[in-house]
Specification:
This protein is of the alpha+beta class. It has helices spanning 2-19, 73-88, 94-117; strands spanning 35-51, 58-67, 122-131, 139-150, 153-159, 166-172.
């Protein structure tokens, strides 16, 4: 069953492929009359440079960042609550209120000191980048000015490549009038 289904599928694809329009490539262009090719001796090749656009340059380096953990609010509040609760268990009447307030003040101070004793600075490593302005712009060769000699006459052309010692040229002969 699988082979039959595969055969039907392949036949269907083959039918679609043959239905497409294929065009023959165009015939080669006829050679122009009075045109021939020759070789010229290269006398000089000068590269032509142009600046290349570059993204902004950056100098990056690692930097250690140290931040003190100054937030002692949690220790102060916790100490004040514990001190207030302990002060509330002492005394009667107005003495109990005074003991609660005094316990909260003393507990808050103790909680603040305990929190400060356990503070440790936070140390982390960060990468810091700064723009650099003193870089030399890059130059790229974009063409070559070529001086060459053909049959005793010297010519000059700008080419996208370095031709080497010889340059293939096309010579066209046409009436001057």
């Amino acid at each position: 069953m699988y082979r039959i289904a595969m055969a039907v599928l392949l036949l269907g694809l083959a039918g679609n492929a043959s239905a497409q329009n294929y065009y023959a490539p165009p015939p080669p262009a006829p050679q122009a009359a009075n045109v021939r090719f020759g070789w010229a001796e290269v006398l000089r090749v000068d590269p032509v440079y142009a600046p290349v656009a570059q993204p902004p340059q950056q100098a990056c380096y690692p930097q250690t960042v140290r931040r003190e953990g100054n937030d002692r609010t949690g220790g102060t509040v916790l100490g004040a609550i514990v001190g207030g609760v302990l002060g509330n268990t002492v005394g009667k009447g107005d003495g109990r209120k005074a003991a609660t307030v005094a316990g909260a003040v003393v507990g808050g101070a103790i909680g603040n000191r305990v929190s400060a004793a356990h503070d440790q600075p936070l140390v982390s490593q960060q990468t810091v980048c700064r723009p650099v302005d003193n870089y030399a712009p890059q130059q790229q060769i974009v063409a070559y000015d070529v001086e060459y000699r053909y049959r005793g006459d010297v010519y000059m052309s700008r080419l996208p490549y370095d031709p080497g010692e010889r340059l293939r040229i096309r010579v066209t002969i046409a009436p001057a009038d």
